[in-house]
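Quick start: read one record
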Amino acid sequence: MISRLVKKIKNSLQALWHGFADTINANKKKSILGVFLALLLVIALTFLTLTVNSKIRAAQMDNLIYEDLPTKKIVPFSYGEGDKMINEKKAVSVMFAKPNQTETRKALQIIKQKEDELNRKFYYYPLVYQTLEIKNTYNIASDEVTFVFFQNGEEKNRFTLNSVKDPKENFIPELNRLPMWNIEVEENKK
């Protein structure tokens, strides 16, 4: 019973294939043109998908994450531009954090309350897409809010919100000291 069914399906598929091959042989120019157009269509759809995907992600980040930033002193990276900016800027402080976690909300709340004490702008690198890649590149824990100072693309100093004792009092001063990595090095030399 099953073998007859398999044989019947096999014969039907062979008949379809032979009919397809005969049609192609009878109309070679049209067949080549059809294959070429189908290939162009596949390439165009692939390119469109890749382009639209990154634009959708950028729009999502703009609408869902960056609109809710409490101060102008937090500068969001454009989608896909974070690594480039870190490597190209002479000096840059960056906050790496998942936007929806409790620690991030805590950090943003403290920044909002003590915005006047913050002496510089810093960049926000949200851990939304490609989290594992970002985590491995910058050696960060994705469940922590990590602040890193880069000079000429090289990490010079870092701290996490969890490492700050009494964050309500000491977080902003620690953030202000982040770029002063060389002062600690000089003090250790003495």
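The chain has two domains: 2-63, 72-189.
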